[in-house]
Protein 1
Amino acid sequence: MAATDRVKQILSWYSGDNIGVKTNLARLMNHGALAGTGKFVILPVDQGFEHGPARSFAPNPPAYDPDYHFQLAIDAGCNAYAAPLGALEASADRFVGQVPTILKLNNSDTLAKMENPCSAVTGSVKDAVRLGCAAIGYTIYPGSGARNVMYEELRELVLEAKDAGLPTIVWAYARGALSKDGETAIDVIAYAAHISCQLGAHIVKVKPPKDFLEQAEAKKVYEKQGIPTKTLAERARHVVQSCFNGKRIVIFSGGEAKGTDDVLEEVRGLAAGGAFGSIMGRNAFQRPRAEALQLLSSVMDIYRKAS
Amino acid sequence: MAATDRVKQILSWYSGDNIGVKTNLARLMNHGALAGTGKFVILPVDQGFEHGPARSFAPNPPAYDPDYHFQLAIDAGCNAYAAPLGALEASADRFVGQVPTILKLNNSDTLAKMENPCSAVTGSVKDAVRLGCAAIGYTIYPGSGARNVMYEELRELVLEAKDAGLPTIVWAYARGALSKDGETAIDVIAYAAHISCQLGAHIVKVKPPKDFLEQAEAKKVYEKQGIPTKTLAERARHVVQSCFNGKRIVIFSGGEAKGTDDVLEEVRGLAAGGAFGSIMGRNAFQRPRAEALQLLSSVMDIYRKAS
Amino acid sequence: MAATDRVKQILSWYSGDNIGVKTNLARLMNHGALAGTGKFVILPVDQGFEHGPARSFAPNPPAYDPDYHFQLAIDAGCNAYAAPLGALEASADRFVGQVPTILKLNNSDTLAKMENPCSAVTGSVKDAVRLGCAAIGYTIYPGSGARNVMYEELRELVLEAKDAGLPTIVWAYARGALSKDGETAIDVIAYAAHISCQLGAHIVKVKPPKDFLEQAEAKKVYEKQGIPTKTLAERARHVVQSCFNGKRIVIFSGGEAKGTDDVLEEVRGLAAGGAFGSIMGRNAFQRPRAEALQLLSSVMDIYRKAS
Amino acid sequence: MAATDRVKQILSWYSGDNIGVKTNLARLMNHGALAGTGKFVILPVDQGFEHGPARSFAPNPPAYDPDYHFQLAIDAGCNAYAAPLGALEASADRFVGQVPTILKLNNSDTLAKMENPCSAVTGSVKDAVRLGCAAIGYTIYPGSGARNVMYEELRELVLEAKDAGLPTIVWAYARGALSKDGETAIDVIAYAAHISCQLGAHIVKVKPPKDFLEQAEAKKVYEKQGIPTKTLAERARHVVQSCFNGKRIVIFSGGEAKGTDDVLEEVRGLAAGGAFGSIMGRNAFQRPRAEALQLLSSVMDIYRKAS
Amino acid sequence: MAATDRVKQILSWYSGDNIGVKTNLARLMNHGALAGTGKFVILPVDQGFEHGPARSFAPNPPAYDPDYHFQLAIDAGCNAYAAPLGALEASADRFVGQVPTILKLNNSDTLAKMENPCSAVTGSVKDAVRLGCAAIGYTIYPGSGARNVMYEELRELVLEAKDAGLPTIVWAYARGALSKDGETAIDVIAYAAHISCQLGAHIVKVKPPKDFLEQAEAKKVYEKQGIPTKTLAERARHVVQSCFNGKRIVIFSGGEAKGTDDVLEEVRGLAAGGAFGSIMGRNAFQRPRAEALQLLSSVMDIYRKAS
């Protein structure tokens, strides 16, 4: 398709990257129901690995089948479908050329607690290339005692991915030496998102931030400078600002499954704050397919109107 | 042999793999008494390393000789014989072309306890190639504090094996931060099997699951969704479903030596639940040869009828 | 876009390739005015290198600017734009995501005659990746005393390109130990196209064959078997058949600039014979832009109707 | 299958090779209608590359499709199917596990004469591995001024193939500094076959030798020692003897298409002389399928009786 | 065995080499009927490749079998058996540890003349290592237009062989830009032997020189300095002197088959001149086995007495 002005503008922020990386960013932005708007709705399905298969798929058993998610992402008009190696490998050949894919290169299970949370690298850039992916994904846990291990691994993968013409999406989940509330505190989310940008992320994915400040030093500044954090829109805007003043793509996860109204209200807040989109897993695939398609369509409408 | 429809169907699930890998999967499925059925009975002999020679072989002293196991697997019509490096190397030349072999690439002894259980890598893909193997095998311990080490090692071996045209069989034994019952809990076994698939396993091997739920979060879901786990058939079906909705080959270990009736009853339950087969070591080679052949034949009959 | 049945059928012929290669084939087939039809119109601009700039661009001076060709390919709705390294590098960044590109990896000038014609390798797979290309291109001269050099170079590039997820388009121009007529003889063109397929070409590009037989041994067979070669449609059909019975994409060059009617009549013949499309350079860019757009549109109409 | 005594005996001659190579030799010997006899009938289809598509396939047009040959080799019960890269890649995925394949790694076209005949390398050991092949094939032209180039290329490929567990089949065609009759002279064929063995060939393929002596020095010895060369059986026996006294597998090509009686009489002569089998292309695929299956069956009967 | 003083003395000349290389030299000197004497009788069998199988083996048909030569070298008490790759590979496993072996790394056939004689590299140091060889062998043709190619190949192989702990034996046959007599002229043989030493040969093998001077410049010096060349003993002494004043092992070939008396007289002359031994192929294996053993025993007696 001809590039829209918005897509051209977004690509201009990535002028430090080679044309291959930008071509794949364009592939993501030019696909699906939001093509050309610069907005994103991505379907991520790594919950089987992260939480176990029954917790993830029993609410909607067809979702045990990796083909289900591919078809859902295609039919819903998502910009991309993200999954770990095994699931992509099992299904990608049947959906060649129908939806851009993102290979999640690290994953963590919940069979045992880790003192210093850290995901295992479960795929490679070489896998992403042979599977025809448009990007790689990688999770960091800012706040973890093992965060530097992850930052360094990420740095190497970003570099390797660039050589293969692939952009990198960073899942930034603060955890470890933080209070439970702190994991989604606005200062922490903004900080984690900024670190991701500094590490070379082309797209940053964080949880919707709460109106809470975790870090004492930060709290002083937020209060002194009067940074507004009351509404989700304000907080989303602050996170986006923290990502190179809006010059990196920032998208938000949907989190645990919840009611349709709650989902849409949250998305409205994010969109109002300038979010580039949502990455919505459980709220999509744990619903019956028709409901999921309806919900994703509504989410896309919100972002389209905000574009 | 001409490929049966079932073999073709199973191979279609591995469309993300190169033809070399699929050719070796076909070698496994087209050999032995179950050739063409898509069912498997594999003879694994790594117990000498895992439990010591006397515990493994004294009940049937001819089994001290690695040739014994090769001949047993051939005469019984097993799909394959799996063993660590030394044993394969000692005997493979005398049995060239008579039974597909699987090189187990990591092993763990029981001379000392490990806080974070982890096997040592004891062979290489290069060894598997020069020994003419049809697959590699690797053990992970989901639940161990060292699980990420194993996941990452496995990931690299899977990639290297693919380059050599070899599929990977993952032995998934949950242990570590789990109760004793939890190691064979249905939620844990299903989870461990799913992780194996996501890591790129072509064939997953787990223990027969018990009617027990280890994880509190999982327990809620199993109860809410009414996932049936009373019978072994139900549990086997759930494990198979957890492996990409049945699109990965899942086989079950026989575990400790037990009476013939117990073995066959267990196999009947597994087969009824859609298990792709059994991998049966001690229950085979610790019996006198004639009895072992009889038992394996009965096990194969059960799977053949279920195909 | 959702894959059409025709695109899925064509992709099924490339089942020996990895998903990355197939994804890029799909990119080519899902772009432009012929998206989804399995037909191709590609704009190639390497004539500046092959014939010199004035011979190539003076008839339409805006064509001296590589941006001109990118925009022409985009506005005309071509499936792809093919060019040597320098021209792609000069312009690709301004057109990211707007049209798939093909990096021509070898080129030959006409400043001196060569006894054994052979192009120079002027780009690399690595260049194609960093420029975000969807394919590489390579020219062979079957009939040349240096053909084995080219076949071997091609073989290495095909393998390297596959590892980068890129398909290969082979320009097969017979020349060397052939009569002038022999270069476009139907037996020679069919043979050159077949060789390209055997060397691993995903797409083959040849000149429209003439009703002439060059090789004495071949002539006997064509006459004995009554292979029809009178009409261009018959000859195109024979070339397509010679490419794995139609299971490789075969496209035809437009050759020297000529009148619109001549171009369209030739395309009608090719389309009637089952050609997968045309690759049209001079007949496009040597016309004024408006005329070129009109011509390309008419060509696409012909292929669309034939699909 | 259990190895027959004959297969075990033949494998014993390859004791210098690793078990992977021997396993693939066993795959070839344990497949098809001649499984276990130590005899071979192989279908080779590289004539499209060597002579052009029309000369090769027009007599039986379904043969334009590479799938045709795979199915023919399977249905006829051939030990293997040999082809260049493109044809294997186009079809192998649809026939996984149904017939061993041999990747011909070099090929030569007939679009131009070469002063020093030499084939181009058109595939790699890496390709053979990813395509699941059981062996590689390579052609040498003893007598050519470029023979050392080929011997050295072969030597490297043999070594690389061994590392991948693959045996090598050498097509030994004397040409170059020889009279036309000399190309199939008994002294030359025996010499070319012996050279192949010394270069590491596991299987040697030559043309049926004629009762003619090319080399003056050799002629003296044949006459002095009274080496019998009158009948084809005698000549075949001499060639087999020249290959390490019968300790290398020697098979014979069928050559140009001819009548059924002529083919069978030739095969009877070869079989009587201890030939290990035939590699029969044009005489198989240029016949209608039913006739080809009948002919191959008759050929196999002759070898089976001779085993 | 304990090293004799003579063996220690010879090893002291190779003090620039690593202990691995010297250990293998000692293996050669401490094996067989001449063990400990510093004298050598080696059985070389590459004539099948060099002259064709019938010319080589028809006079004594059991010699078609590579096993025959191994057994002959063992039973005769030769220091080593030298052969090309294929023959060693075919038999070495059956004779492990019974006689040191030398892998001849290049060979030349006589199916076509070469303007610039040059052998093809037909084996590798890696092969020599995996076959358990004690040395590699390589042929140079000083006097050939391609000699520098050979010198450079040799240099690389010598270096690679040293890294593997293997000494190198150079077959130095002058041919090319020389008169027929010149190929065995004393000045030429001495020169070729010296070049071999300079190229890093541990053992040099030349033909017995004739009383003829080829090179005009050399002739002047031989005459002026009164270098005695009348008797074979004088000429052998001159060749040995030309090899670092006797500090390299120089052995002589037997050449064409001839009568027993002629062979022994030649050997007596060589031995009297300080030759380190003989390498005797056709004169050994073209005789009936009993005669060959008798002849080799007589040859060894002569060298033993000279030690």
Protein 2
Amino acid sequence: MAVHEDAPLAGLTVLEVSSFVAAPLGGMTLAQLGAQVIRIDPIGGGPDWRRWPLAPSGTSLYWTALNKGKRSVTLSFRAPEGQRLLGDLLTASGHDGGIVLTNAIGQDWLSHSALSRLRPDLIHLQIQGHRDGRAAVAYTVNAATGFPLITGPEGLDGPVNHVLPAWDVACGLYAAVGLLAAVRRRERTGVGSEITLALADVALAVAGHLGFLAEAQISGADRPRIGNHLYGSLGRDFQTADGKRVMVVALTRRHFADLAFATGLTSTFAELERLLHADFSKDGDRYCHRQVITALLEPWFAGRTLADIERVLSGTSVLWSRYRSFGDLAGEGTLGKSPLLQEITQPGVGPVYAPGSPLVMDGAAGPCAAPELGADTGSVLTGLLGLTATEVQALAQRGIIGGS
Amino acid sequence: MAVHEDAPLAGLTVLEVSSFVAAPLGGMTLAQLGAQVIRIDPIGGGPDWRRWPLAPSGTSLYWTALNKGKRSVTLSFRAPEGQRLLGDLLTASGHDGGIVLTNAIGQDWLSHSALSRLRPDLIHLQIQGHRDGRAAVAYTVNAATGFPLITGPEGLDGPVNHVLPAWDVACGLYAAVGLLAAVRRRERTGVGSEITLALADVALAVAGHLGFLAEAQISGADRPRIGNHLYGSLGRDFQTADGKRVMVVALTRRHFADLAFATGLTSTFAELERLLHADFSKDGDRYCHRQVITALLEPWFAGRTLADIERVLSGTSVLWSRYRSFGDLAGEGTLGKSPLLQEITQPGVGPVYAPGSPLVMDGAAGPCAAPELGADTGSVLTGLLGLTATEVQALAQRGIIGGS
């Protein structure tokens, strides 16, 4: 991959022994800022290697999306010699290496205590389900948080799961934060870090950081399910005359005044405020009277096409967006126009628009393709460990390493 | 706040000029790892100062949750003298300071170009809605991604919004990553960073990193709405005999074999595989036949209480969780038992369990209360800028700073 020499994380080397979303996303976040991230898999691939969705070739669009810009090494995880090679890579990864990111649980040879014997300055971050070591995935963690019971249409009975694996995403980004914080400490003090990060803790922490846990403790009651309304202010989806949907938000006094003006409802809302003894410049009042306010807005949206609505609302402070499907995004040329995405050629997939890091900063590179499984095994072992091509070939023949 | 001297980010000073979720969460993430984060608000508070949910006292449970462990300074944002004080703090914040995190848009005095004149080594991260400067919030960004149209019950028409502001959360964590990456580069090279991070880019990047964008480009079609089923493998919610719900996931061959055995369906599923010419050890086949598999599982769950189910499934590899509401979480004593949370006394709220960082590492502190608005104005100006108490008082009397 094309790493800029002035990339923020140029020089860092991270060994990643991972699967699924959180750990791979954490590693890729660092890779897209210039770190060398070497993903190490068992020969033949980990449990996520063929995960859906798949390209017609059988290549996983999921795996390739989560491993862009990494190098891929495959080893025998069972053979002591394979395990030892990971330790050798750790030792050989230099002053800015000695970093392991993993979500492998119950593998002694990957534990902090085993690996810190090889590198006392080891930075080791282990992602697990629960803090006590029990397994969990984003779907079970989400069920335990409270969000599914307040997501979805008003009046619905039962939970609505997230399709977005939001806890995996947050967990992967927390992992990147934890590793960089530990790198800073090591650069100042020479001391490594043992870090654990539980997916269930991430969900509970975020629920707490957003006030949901305090609300439940103070009120002693559950927040009601309010469909697509925005809690605590004014926002909802509306249907347009041409069968589209738009999400419209008036978070501040100015947004609401602009929305009222744009829809010709300024005096109607003023009259309504008097009738209800309300003050719609306050977000609490907009929220309490959301049903009547949005009922008055509905006909305005229902009577106009998306193009009409766009014409009227653009140039105002009103926050709004059309709802788009992923197919719309891919089909409308939106992806090609975004500076976030670039067309890459992904082995097994072909040309595809892929995102780089959303962090726009000097030296952050655009997206690179994901490696083919094991493609860098030889070059990493020769480059980092100084093995000869013959030695690499012998290891491959004996099934200690995979081949490219 | 009680910062450990060996905290990973001890010594760092970050000035945060923020509101709502993303920037405050980014700053708090650093504060919980030991950075000194000074949140600077206009006198009287920013637009999020009274945001719902509220405690009976009127204190925002949202604001206090997102600003734990920070120091709070209030200044006049309009008076040139107030603006200058922020510049003075930036200059005075030392070798490990000079860091600004903001989501204020269109304020020239907070821009990278203005502030980098004061500190050439400035690290400046600005969160915005779209990369081109247009405003957006998590609710409008989400509408544009495609997720709302595939979230929610099968057969439902229309979008289902996230209640979790997932894009704000991801954006705040990306901000923390970006700042730490820039800190590392500055420590190595002395060079500061101008970083921009758009909420809309975060959503599009994550959608891409998870394979949704590639899938839409390759298949040319939209993924169908599949309710609470897990895409690409086997997982769904089930009702229990005592009216509870559980989420059950069989992500691997072993999970599925354990689930089949626990529910007494091993031979039924084996027979079904023969009938359907399927192989349920493959996640794709479990996914394709999810309706019949889960239909066969349903009666087992419907005939058992939660306690029964727990007895049978615990000790197996099957991933599962009961659905809990936030009220359940607060009422069941779950919060008091989690080592992630500690009881703090939050001014305006009272005693409440609040989460620290989910990153478990040496020197990461437990949760601290959020400050009262402006409570640290005097101590920050005397401590960091060396003003006398009389000078501080004079500034407060002239309305240049808020008071504690």
